[in-house]
Amino acid sequence: MTDPAFRADVLAGLRADPPAIPARWFYDRRGSELFERITDLPEYYPTRVETALLAEYGPAIAEAAGRGRAVIEFGSGSSAKTPHLLRAVAPAAYVPIDISGDFLRDSAAALGRDFPGLAVLPLEADFTRPLALPAEVADLPRLGFFPGSTIGNLDAAAAVDLLRAMAGTLGDGAMLLIGMDRVKSPAILIPAYDDAAGVTAAFNLNLLHRINRELEADVPVDAFAHEARWNDAAARIEMHLVARRDVAFTVAGQDFRIAEGGGIHTENSHKYGARDARLLLRAGGWTPVTEWTDAADQFALILAEA
Ligand code: AVJ
């Protein structure tokens, strides 16, 4: 139940000044369910826009990337997006990679049913380092797929490291299709991360519930409020859990205090201008080839080659 890495990140994160816990710990079962609900919210445009881009431009993507590659997806195959790509690209094999085995096996099984002839080869692994792909795809050219603007959780240095690791995993001659959210007005961004129904608030606060569930902790969850902020200098949305009063609590035998108005920084979601997106890819060892965006330029799908 207790992942030692979760425990270490939470304890170190709460000691840090200002306190900060990495966003990857949002995704326990409950957190994954809440994230799925976020993707359906009227305010949360990224999933809708990216899915529509894949549906509309799938044939153009297949034209540019070539058909019959092995598609390697980084992060648990999201139910709605992947079929559009698979239908268009008609891959020789599909390898979804995720650290969370449960989710991975469920979505791989569902895709296997929808694409009967396709070799679906799920890989439970940490894709932040170069890893060995299944032997079945050894001789196939690869198309990496990294949707959702998940890269936005990382600062520039970590994003470059990840892109380089992906280049290492995918090998020579590979291509990468990556989704990147655009910089846009805070009037659109803030509601996308602070929705009227409170689902994003529940998603953020679930991190505290998870700490209480898994780390022998007594964090008073109702003393914290969800906050989404636009950090213009860093071009990112930040999520915080802000203390509404002075709080004291224990996690795994260690005592912590947070003063009223102080908080825990729980997520960065970087947004990219067109030039910044291309620069980041180049720094990570990829050459942008083509990109597709919606009419309002809210979200971009970029195809790059190694
Ligand atoms: C899964 C990291 C792409 O940053 O938009 C959604 C996570 N956090 N609402 C994002 C998230 C709050 C999401 N990513």
From TrEMBL:
- Classification of source organism: Bacteria, Pseudomonadati, Pseudomonadota, Alphaproteobacteria, Sphingomonadales
Q: What is this protein called?
A: Dimethylhistidine N-methyltransferase
Q: Name one GO molecular function term.
A: methyltransferase activity
Could you tell me which residue ranges the Histidine-specific methyltransferase SAM-dependent domain spans? 6-305
Q: What organism is recorded for this protein? A: Sphingomonas jatrophae
Which terms are listed as keywords in the entry?
Methyltransferase, Transferase
User: A Pfam family for this UniProt protein?
Assistant: Methyltransf_33
* PANTHER family per record: ERGOTHIONEINE BIOSYNTHESIS PROTEIN 1
**InterPro entries in UniProt:** EgtD, EgtD_Methyltrsf_superfamily, MeTrfase_dom, MeTrfase_EgtD-like, SAM-dependent_MTases_sf
